[in-house]
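Please decode residue identities from the backbone states below.
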């Protein structure tokens, strides 16, 4: 069946974990989307969680050997139960083809994981809140034979963006893949404090792909499925049929709910899958801010131009930077470009003659939008 293709791997891994969990967990459920293109460099979706309890995982974006989403965890080592997680499996652990964490924010934890395959995970104590919309973006790029995937989140109430981590793996021949699968899981049903007797509920909307040509695409169809393997039946016990999904016209969003006294609506007609209507007010392209540079500073010493800058964290996050060094006639005499979202300083090697110069910075954000450039003057005096 075609609609199962994008979630086969994830379902398989969930079945493995299901065998290790005790009975009476809420059933694992999926909200899946189909897109026109076979590959994407960006995946984005909004989520608003309205009911949660420990051992809840609200996966938002799934992609090539990875996923990102929000969790509520009983693990107290992170300092906050409401965390942001992004993970990347190894393409071939035994063969030495492994993922890596190339950047993690100073507050983001990183570690290896196993049991559902092996790879790297990153966890940030993001402290997400109920009844708040969050926009989660995964942006990919390739460099030096590797595929990089950055995880970014936007609190739509405050407008603030946050870059939690960047993970990578050897180039698998594609970017983030075709379709998307949002996922709701009660990963440990064995503890009565947070098993399937509790309701978990979230709304999802504005699911987008940006294809490899840089074109925005919204999904052509959307649907829902509840896992139904023998392992799931055993794991879920009395809560195996405690699920529901529907389109909510007031939220202009899809809803997924499981656990407790939840029951499927009449639209399911006894099945565990359902196709969902199109979102009414998504539009043809997303509404986005554009990256903004707040300040730039430059200085010269011993054959190096040192440039540092700040960007507005309430505008779309930085992906790529371009720095140009210009003489007084406006001629570009040096240029450097880098795709490192967290980069805020750069040293450009150049033996400049005495005189005055400008350093001009342009930022391209994660949505391939260019900021207004900003320039700063600096002087070169080779007397020391």
């Amino acid at each position: 069946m075609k609609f199962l293709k994008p979630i086969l791997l994830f379902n398989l891994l969930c079945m493995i974990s299901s065998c290790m969990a005790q009975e009476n967990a809420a059933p694992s459920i999926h909200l899946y989307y189909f897109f026109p293109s076979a590959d994407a460099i960006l995946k984005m979706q909004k989520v608003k969680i309205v009911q949660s309890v420990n051992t809840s995982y609200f996966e938002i974006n799934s992609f090539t050997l990875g996923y990102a989403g929000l969790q509520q965890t009983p693990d107290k080592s992170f300092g906050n139960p409401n965390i942001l997680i992004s993970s990347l499996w190894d393409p071939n652990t035994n063969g030495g083809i492994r993922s890596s964490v190339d950047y993690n924010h100073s507050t983001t934890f990183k570690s290896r994981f196993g049991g559902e395959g092996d790879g790297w995970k990153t966890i940030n104590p993001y402290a997400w809140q109920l009844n708040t919309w969050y926009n989660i973006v995964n942006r990919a790029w390739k460099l030096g034979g590797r595929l990089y995937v950055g995880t970014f989140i936007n609190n739509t109430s405050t407008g603030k963006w946050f870059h939690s981590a960047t993970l990578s793996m050897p180039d698998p021949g594609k970017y983030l893949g075709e379709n998307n699968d949002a996922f709701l899981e009660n990963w440990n049903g064995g503890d009565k404090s947070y098993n399937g007797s509790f309701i978990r509920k979230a709304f999802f909307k504005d699911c987008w792909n940006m294809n490899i040509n840089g074109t925005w695409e919204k999904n052509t169809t959307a649907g829902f499925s509840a896992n139904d393997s023998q392992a799931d039946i055993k794991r879920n016990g009395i809560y195996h049929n405690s699920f529901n999904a529907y389109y909510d016209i007031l939220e202009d969003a899809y809803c997924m709910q499981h656990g407790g006294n939840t029951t499927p609506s009449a639209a399911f007609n006894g099945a565990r899958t359902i196709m969902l209507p199109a979102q009414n007010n998504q539009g043809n392209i997303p509404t986005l801010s554009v990256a903004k540079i707040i300040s730039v500073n430059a200085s010269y010493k011993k054959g190096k131009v040192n440039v540092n800058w700040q960007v507005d964290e309430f505008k779309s996050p930085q992906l790529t930077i371009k720095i140009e060094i210009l003489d007084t006639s406006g001629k570009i005499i040096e240029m450097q470009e880098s795709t490192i979202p967290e980069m805020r300083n750069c040293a450009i090697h150049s033996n400049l003659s005495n005189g005055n110069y400008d350093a001009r910075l342009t930022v391209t954000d994660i949505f391939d939008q260019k900021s207004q450039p900003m320039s700063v003057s600096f002087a070169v005096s080779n007397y020391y």
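Observation: The domain at 2-276 is CATH 2.60.120 (Jelly Rolls).
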